[in-house]
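Possible regression after last week's pipeline update?

I re-ran a chain I had predicted before the update to compare outputs. Posting the input and the new output here so someone can diff against the archived version. Not blocking, just want to make sure nothing changed silently.
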Amino acid sequence: MPVVDVDPDELRYLTGHSEKDDDELRSDLFDLGLEFEGWTEDDEFQLEFAPDRLDRLSVEGVARSLRYHYGDDRGVEVPNTNSADWTIEVEDQPDERPYVTGAVVRGLDMDEAALESLIQLQEKLHATMGRKRAKGAIGVHDLTMLKGDSVTDETGNSITYTSADPDEATFVPLDADAEMTPREVMESHETGQTYGDLVADFDRVPAIYDAIGLFSFPPVINGRRTEVSVDSRDLFIEMTGTDQWTIDHMCNIVCYALAARGGQVEQVDVSYADDAPGEYAGKTLERPDFSVRTKTVTHDRIESILGVSLDSREVIDYAERAGLDATETEADDGVAYEVEIPPYRVDVIHPLDIIDDIGRALGFNSLEPTYPDVSTVGGRHERSRLEDAARDALVGLGFEDLLNFHMINEAENFERMGLSVPRTDEQASSAEQSSADRSSGQGPREDGDNREQAGGDAVGQADPVTIQEPYSEDYTILRTWALPSIMMVLENNTHRSYPQDLAEIGLAASLDDSENTGVAEHRTVAAALARTDASYEDAKARLQALADAFDKDLATPPTTHPSFIGGRAAEVVLDGEPVGVIGEIHPKVLVEHDLELPVAAFEFRLDALE
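New output (post-update):
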């Protein structure tokens, strides 16, 4: 979830509500869905919010939402724009990054707070909507440092978005004192090393020129000549990317933020060459695009979703308080509303988004819960009650509760825990043929099968459910047991203090032909004690207390398991049924996870506590 640093004093200034103290502001922000996460070193709010409201990535956007919340602003606001004086000529640009947009903002009174907010907004838009600059990248320049070429009608100024030879073009990038080529920037400049991979494979890299020369190397870095400072009053904003819609809406969000600082937005013409790639070849676009979209939502749907009765005037009032404009109209199924959506709202894609805005303006906290008009009343499943009871017992025994991913990979689930990766049918057939060859003297004889050595009936040793098209090599199967997940957490927590007593109750699964789905799922209880004096006896004492809490008879007959030390491992037997394993983790497993102190652990099926 995105986290934005917001100065509460700036909020008071931009909202015009100096009487609001910090507690009142945090409460109002929570009503908007912005959660207070803590304070920064500079006494700023750290606010976490849903990633759909990208217009709130700056203090200006948060202040705008608060002004609507307070009733100071109503309806759709569209900044006035002056006619274009600048043109972006687009020619010979890279096919891999064909689109560009822009705007001019004049008359800004920049101070340190405004500049920091602009930089943060730029970085957050890069990380979210811009997909780490891959889909869209923002360049902000001091307009007074640009020298435009004359456009064809000899009025106004132009710059050119084109491509350049990475080994020939030169400019002085930000945070540098000497001219560098784009190639040198990608190889030796810190920012270039971070983002250079985005264009490293291009034959010719993206470049933006004015009459003086190269001043922007998107999406990597701007030139030092046009660097923005607190003395800047007029800004030129350019954005390049792989999708026109994305960069246009990123531009809208930036323009709205600067307009809130008193800036006057001025249009920029984007003129694509006739042979430009994409659907805008030969066209001239007027940007920023502040056109207002409309969506239709019915009155009945608003009432059914929110569970309240509203008249038309109330719906329109709440829509305006949410920064929308609504007009009553007629539809086939009754009263409906044509709702106008402001240009900075990139998240409204469905009538339900509008209903959500109306509900927030109404105040979700003011809604009274009612039972649905159905013949049954929902309740908690017994398995859920058992899981909560077991979790409470584990926390009471000193364990920290975890929630890990159910997906994992074969190496983490099997190999790093000392287990063998189960073979496929094809591998099994090959092994059988090799065995037959050895019996007939046609091949070398080996000392047994790896799976047998690892313990075919060991906890966790099962045929895994494989993800057919995994999006990452880290998540290729469903885990067959939970202890590997806890070991991964311990591996990532070596920089934290000890003891670390961790537990998890979660899903485990394996292939099972006897199930209708072909997959057997169960909830499993896993726990580990990582401390200098961790021992089998410590783990057994916790397990005994857990069994006693559920009135279960516990027995722990000796066993062997590849993940545990021989002679320091036992079966977990509850009421006469073997359901798990307990012991001290094997040194090889500890070394595999970079752990330098003992770990004692246990795992068993949750349903054994029923």
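Follow-up from reviewer: compared with the archived run. The chain has a mean pLDDT of 90. Marking as no regression found.
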